[in-house]
Write a structure and sequence with these properties.
There is one protein chain. The chain is an alpha+beta fold. It has two domains: 2-156, no CATH class; 159-325, Mog1/PsbP, alpha/beta/alpha sandwich (Protein Transport Mog1p, Chain A, 3-Layer(aba) Sandwich), CATH 3.40.1000.10. The protein has seven helices and 17 strands. The protein has helices spanning 2-18, 41-45, 47-56, 125-157, 161-171, 219-233, 310-320; strands spanning 25-26, 33-38, 71-76, 89-95, 103-108, 112-113, 116-122, 173-174, 182-186, 190-196, 201-210, 242-246, 253-259, 262-274, 279-289, 294-303, 324-325. Strand 15 and strand 16 (294-303) form a beta hairpin. Helix 3 (47-56) runs parallel beside helix 4 and helix 4 (125-157) packs across helix 7 (310-320).
Length: 327
């Protein structure tokens, strides 16, 4: 059934490209929020709702404090009017005994932009629960892509032109950088961008080295390289302190991804300050820049003591994912 789902996804994507209708309104809803529409409240209160809450509300293992991956909002289908159709992530779940087997449908930018709408229709309630359970990971990936696209769309509206041009001219790196970020440090192999407020700090690190072998993608080498750069270039608030990777309290996780058609190792973990008490989450993307024969790592980190970090981290993730390489 997942194959049918993906086929429907690609088909919908092609239809959207050919759509000549007027520009849709901007999508609504909180970052990393999914609007779930069911036939009735009983479905939401039962095993269907439990499946969704347990998966999409799962606690992220690479954050210093427990925070869910997504938040869920619920509506019964009778209340799903035009006002709610602009939400950026919509999951519609319905039982139709007239269906002989479950049907998965998905559309991009159906009522608003950017938007992902997924509809699951099943002949019985138990079939509906089973279908959602077997495809929930694919659903999450699609909804995440919408949230990344939404953040990037906003950043493109308010870009930090000077930094963008500087990265392109000096490092042959294109990146969508929003207003508020400043250049904190740069060398021939390292760039540090940061955005500071009274309560939070967000940073983008970029480090470069010649690409020689696939062993550079190993988990140990990724952490070793990170610690080398942060020790040399990211000082802490007290004399002699510096940023490093926390490998004792929260183990880093590593995942193979395809980012902008490039093989990428995504690393998630927490950083700490050697010699001080600062810390927070980070996510990095390591890939090869074939145009310049170099290994490139882009990292986003967050410092927000006693405050939620998921949305802040998601924003720097979205920035890193816009990476491209110029001639």
């Amino acid at each position: 059934m997942l194959g049918i789902f993906l086929a429907t996804l690609f088909s919908s994507g092609c239809q959207r490209k050919q759509d000549k209708s007027p520009r849709r309104e901007d999508s609504s809803g909180a970052t990393l929020e999914i609007l779930v529409v069911t036939d009735n409240k009983e479905q939401w209160d039962g095993s269907l709702g439990d499946t969704l809450r347990n998966f999409f509300g799962q606690i992220q293992t690479t954050l210093p404090q427990p925070e869910p991956r997504f938040t869920l909002a619920h509506l019964e289908v009778t209340g799903f009017g035009k006002m709610f159709q602009a939400h950026h992530n919509i999951l519609i779940l319905t039982v139709d005994p007239g269906n002989r087997k479950p049907l998965l449908e998905t559309r991009k930018d159906l009522w608003a932009e950017p938007q992902r709408v997924i509809k699951v229709t099943a002949p019985s309630y138990m079939d509906l629960v089973a279908e959602v359970d077997s495809n929930k990971k694919a659903f999450m990936d699609l909804f995440l892509e919408t949230d990344y696209a939404r953040a990037t769309k906003t950043d493109k509206t308010y870009p930090e032109y000077k930094l963008i041009k500087q990265l392109e001219s000096e490092y042959n790196i294109s990146l969508v950088i929003p207003v508020g970020f400043v250049l904190a440090k740069k060398t021939s192999e390292f760039i540090w961008l940061r955005k500071e407020t009274l309560k939070t700090s967000q940073g983008i690190l970029i480090y470069l080295e010649p690409y020689t072998d696939t062993v550079q993608f190993s988990n140990d080498n990724i952490i070793r390289r990170r610690n080398l750069y942060t020790m040399n270039w990211i000082p802490g608030p007290s004399q002699g302190s510096f940023m490093t990777t926390d490998v004792n309290n929260i183990k880093p996780s590593f995942h193979r991804r395809l980012i902008n058609d490039r093989f990428t190792v995504e690393t998630r973990g927490t950083w700490e300050t050697m010699g001080d008490f600062m810390g927070g989450p980070f996510v990095s993307y390591t890939m090869v820049d074939d145009k310049h024969d170099r290994l490139v790592t882009l990292e986003g980190y967050v410092y927000a003591p006693n405050a939620p970090k998921t949305v802040l981290l998601h924003h720097v993730e979205a920035i890193c994912r816009t990476v491209g390489f110029t001639d």
